[in-house]
RNA sequence: GGAGAGAUUGCUGAGCGGCCAAAGGCAGCAGACUGUAAAUCUGCCGGACUUCGUCCUUCGGAGGUUCGAAUCCUCCUCUCUCCA
């Protein structure tokens, strides 16, 4: 976590600019300005609410975009509510595709919440963070309360939502309870009397319903802020665990480093904007240097990787990961730490393919064979291209195996 | 309640009763190249094996017709459309 900036002393406009960095929507700036001003004069911090899915407690870089913005509010002295949607989780956010979700038990929810807590304080200030569950008030609503809530909105307004609209037009199924999701989420804002709610751009509709509903309940409408969805490693789909294109913040530094290096040169700038605390101007300068040829894109990307790792691990870990990356990929040497697998010794020679699978370096024999045939396997620095090749499996024999560019393993027979 | 359309290998999306382990795209993997696990190009891409081939399991589920079915028939499950 970087040192706290003297932000509370900044002027209102400076604060607004700071908070607006990297955002897509901000409804609206004047409301936020008013709230900030009131907070400054009354000394009462703003309540900033962000909802999270109780089923996927592994935070990845995509989530950190909004979490980082939460931190910005904290640095200005405000209070953030990390809202775990245990109740809405039963509905399943219709944003996206999955319409059915398994109901989680109380224990599972608590476990997931614990996992969240462990991760979020890498970025957030524990003192200014409140973790809440929306079953607290949504569960208390009961069916009668739910119907009263539903009475405050119309189908036409719900169908304004692009997501529903598209599914409707494409003849995709929409279950009735899905229509309640935006209302339930909006009710969270009522219950918490949120000053600000944030989310990804895909949440815009839900967030705006919050504004409407708060007015219905006679509350001052919340300010709505949306942040871009960060594309995953493929550069196309949004980062998500199910697509496997994510960088988890709990991952080892080496792994994060490699993954950051694998994003395209173009995408790197978006990561700079959304996953570092550099100002927009600083990033533009850097980009200008790369375009002008004064800064090598690879160097810029390495710096990005180090910055990201420094947030989740430490600057020292970042340096180590950088060194390791250069060693393995730039200098094509073996990594310093290689996982070792012990296999049972045998008198008969063992096919290389079998050994690769046994060492967990390939999922199936076919996959191992394919990789080997394509020239991707070497043992003790010598490329193997005969799929029938075998190795001595007598006790005491050991082999250093490389499969593809980044799978390494050591096998010892015993 | 009635009439129709559809469910295909991680996703998407083709598929004439045999030439279908099933086109194309995406993702993934490997190689070359390089500036990196960028970009680009080439190849691979269900599983097992004694792999220029053989066998096994897959096309919503269960049966059936046929020498042979993802392709035809019956029933079931789920989705969508239109009518009431």
Q: What can you tell me about this protein's structure?
A:
With 414 residues, the protein is an alpha/beta fold. It is 47% helix and 14% strand. Strands 1-6-5-2-3-4 form a six-stranded mixed β-sheet, sandwiched between helices. It is globular and about 80 Å long. The two termini are 46 Å apart. The structure holds one RNA strand of 84 nucleotides.
Topology:
Elements: H1 12-20, E1 25-27, H2 29-42, E2 47-52, H3 61-75, E3 79-84, H4 88-91, H5 106-120, E4 129-133, H6 135-150, H7 155-158, H8 162-169, H9 176-192, E5 196-200, H10 204-216, E6 223-227, H11 253-261, H12 267-275, H13 280-291, H14 297-312, H15 315-330, E7 340-343, E8 350-351, H16 352-358, H17 365-373, E9 377-379, E10 382-384, E11 390-391, E12 398-403, E13 407-413
Parallel strand pairs: 2-3, 2-5, 3-4, 5-6, 7-13
Antiparallel strand pairs: 1-6, 8-11, 9-10, 9-12, 12-13
The protein binds one RNA strand of 84 nucleotides through α11, α14, α15 and α17.
């Amino acid at each position: 976590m970087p040192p706290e900036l003297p932000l509370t002393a900044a002027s209102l406009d400076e604060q607004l600019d700071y908070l607006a960095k990297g955002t897509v929507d901000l409804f609206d700036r004047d409301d936020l300005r008013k709230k900030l001003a009131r907070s400054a004069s009354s000394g009462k911090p703003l309540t900033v609410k962000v909802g999270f899915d109780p089923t996927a407690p592994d935070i990845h870089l995509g989530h950190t975009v909004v979490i980082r913005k939460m931190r910005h509010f904290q640095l200005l002295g405000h209070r953030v509510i990390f809202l775990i949607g245990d109740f809405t989780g039963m509905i399943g956010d219709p944003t996206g595709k999955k319409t059915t979700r398994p109901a989680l038990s109380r224990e599972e929810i608590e476990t997931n919440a614990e996992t969240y807590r462990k991760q979020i304080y890498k970025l957030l200030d524990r003192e200014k963070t409140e973790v809440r569950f929306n079953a607290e008030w949504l569960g208390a609503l009961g069916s009668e309360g739910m119907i009263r809530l539903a009475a405050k909105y119309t189908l036409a307004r719900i169908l304004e939502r692009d997501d529903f609209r598209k599914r409707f037009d494409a003849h995709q199924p929409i279950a009735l309870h899905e229509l309640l999701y935006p209302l339930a989420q909006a009710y969270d804002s009522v219950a918490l009397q949120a000053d600000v709610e944030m989310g990804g751009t895909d949440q815009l509709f839900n967030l705006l319903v919050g504004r409407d509903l708060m007015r219905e309940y006679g509350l001052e409408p919340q300010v709505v802020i949306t942040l871009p969805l960060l594309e995953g490693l493929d550069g196309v789909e949004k980062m998500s665990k199910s697509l496997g294109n994510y960088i988890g913040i709990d991952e080892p530094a080496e792994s994060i480093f490699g993954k950051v290096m694998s994003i395209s040169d173009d995408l790197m700038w978006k990561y700079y904007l959304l996953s570092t605390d550099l100002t927009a101007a600083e990033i533009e300068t850097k980009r200008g240097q790369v375009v002008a040829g004064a800064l090598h894109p690879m160097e810029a990307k390495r710096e990005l990787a180090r910055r990201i790792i420094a947030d989740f691990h430490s600057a020292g870990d970042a340096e180590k990961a950088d060194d390791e990356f250069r060693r393995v990929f730039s200098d094509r040497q073996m990594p310093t730490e290689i996982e070792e697998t012990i296999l049972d010794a045998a008198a008969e020679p063992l096919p290389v393919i079998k050994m690769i699978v046994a060492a967990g370096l390939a999922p199936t024999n076919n996959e191992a064979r394919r990789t080997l045939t394509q020239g991707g396997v070497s043992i003790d620095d010598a490329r193997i291209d005969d799929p029938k090749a075998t190795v001595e499996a007598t006790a005491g024999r050991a082999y250093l195996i490389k499969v593809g560019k980044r799978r390494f393993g050591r096998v010892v027979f015993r």
